[in-house]
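Propose amino acids for all 413 sites.
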């Protein structure tokens, strides 16, 4: 049994991907540890009561300025002191000073790995613990002496099938969730592909913003499909288990994804998935539970995110959708396969079961021995990550300073 620790999670805390990730980490840790939530930027969703209105949630001062994931220093310190936080888990923390603040205070730091660029990869040496939920993330950070690969999953009790039958007996219903970012999630590609299929089918789009404003170039397509009663657009925030029960097949040609959160949810709800033949999406999907669509092009995102974006071949995407319309008989089998895969590979209660021990062990290790920079550099070189090795080697004097406890902070207060 792991020693109980007082763990704080710094995160967005509302119906967004980051909020769901934090919820799952909370569920994995709170059986052993005392867990406290710091709702960064004032993000807090009271509309989802009681889903988000849990004990030990502190809402940070509201912030809507230009610095992503900014945190008020005095308020943050007060939260740490009041709750006697021993370990802080940062969820997608892009602004780095709070990590150094914790180091200066002697608070152990951990990161859920999702966002990074080539330049920021070495900065993850600031953390005492990294958790990667996909093999793609782990391939970049395995040089870190305390990096753990914990396969992603979902709550297979909340997300579960209602039936293996068609959602509507007269149609094959394709379902797509665009959240707050339809461009990144490939909503435009779904619409273009679906507009080319024929036969008894309809498309349900779920969004948290106005798609007509977000994609003005596709207003005509949406109006035509809606007029033909082949398209339904639902614009609202829906707490888990969401709207997956409205569909038969989940279509998700995401241009860029951190963990493929909705893929796991859709499969747990018994929906086979059509997605990109590209990581991390293809870490979950195989021929028994979905279809992988060839990528037409790869290109960099403007903010310099480490991984390239991908864009599927729309014609190929349309053909995969058409196959489901033309052969309804295979759908029941694939629905069962998707659910079986989720139960076997995507059950977060199983996948995340070791997190409590990992967090307990890192506290013991950090207190017994400080970071070892030489080992860090050796592991980078041993991994033969040429670009990363060059970055870390050139930054080694700087890393040496930030990795040593008790040194003066390199960030302004």
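Proposal:
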């Amino acid at each position: 049994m792991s020693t109980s620790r007082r763990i704080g999670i710094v995160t967005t805390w509302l119906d967004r991907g980051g909020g769901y990730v934090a919820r799952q980490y909370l569920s994995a840790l709170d059986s052993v540890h005392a867990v406290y939530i710091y709702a960064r930027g004032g993000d807090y969703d009271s509309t989802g009561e009681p889903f988000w209105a849990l004990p030990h949630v502190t809402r940070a001062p509201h912030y809507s300025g230009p610095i992503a994931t900014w945190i008020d220093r005095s308020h943050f310190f007060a939260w740490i002191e009041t709750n006697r936080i021993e370990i802080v888990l940062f969820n997608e923390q892009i602004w780095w000073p709070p990590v150094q603040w914790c180091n200066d205070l002697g608070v152990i730091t951990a990161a859920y790995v999702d966002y990074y660029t080539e330049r920021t990869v070495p900065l993850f040496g600031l953390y005492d613990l990294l958790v990667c939920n996909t093999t793609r993330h782990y391939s970049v950070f395995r040089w870190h002496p305390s990096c753990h690969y914990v396969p992603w999953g979902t709550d297979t009790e909340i997300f579960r099938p209602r039936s293996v039958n068609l959602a509507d007996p007269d149609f094959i219903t394709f379902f797509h969730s665009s959240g707050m970012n339809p461009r990144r999630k490939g909503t435009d590609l779904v619409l273009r592909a679906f507009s080319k299929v024929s036969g008894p089918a309809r498309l349900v789009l779920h969004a948290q913003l106005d798609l007509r404003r977000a994609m003005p170039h596709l207003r005509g397509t949406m109006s035509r499909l809606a007029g033909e009663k082949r398209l339904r657009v639902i614009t609202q925030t829906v707490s888990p288990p969401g709207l997956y029960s409205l569909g038969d097949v989940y279509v998700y040609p995401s241009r860029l994804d951190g963990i493929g959160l909705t893929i796991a949810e859709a499969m747990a709800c018994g929906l086979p998935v059509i997605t990109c033949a590209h990581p991390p999406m293809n870490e979950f999907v195989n021929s028994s539970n979905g279809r992988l669509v060839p990528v037409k092009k790869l290109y960099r995102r403007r903010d310099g995110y480490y991984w390239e974006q991908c864009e599927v071949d729309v014609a190929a995407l349309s053909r995969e959708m058409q196959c489901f319309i033309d052969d309804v008989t295979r759908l029941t089998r694939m629905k069962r396969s998707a659910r079986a895969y989720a139960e076997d590979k995507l059950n977060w209660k199983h996948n995340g079961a070791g997190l409590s021990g990992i967090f307990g062990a890192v506290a013991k290790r950090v207190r017994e021995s400080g970071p070892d920079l030489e080992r860090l550099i050796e592991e980078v070189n041993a991994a033969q990550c040429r670009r990363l090795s060059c970055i870390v080697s050139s930054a080694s004097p700087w890393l040496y300073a930030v990795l040593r406890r008790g040194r003066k902070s390199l960030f302004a207060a």
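Confidence is low (pLDDT under 50) at residues 383-413. Residues 6-150+352-403 form a domain with the Rossmann fold fold (CATH 3.40.50).
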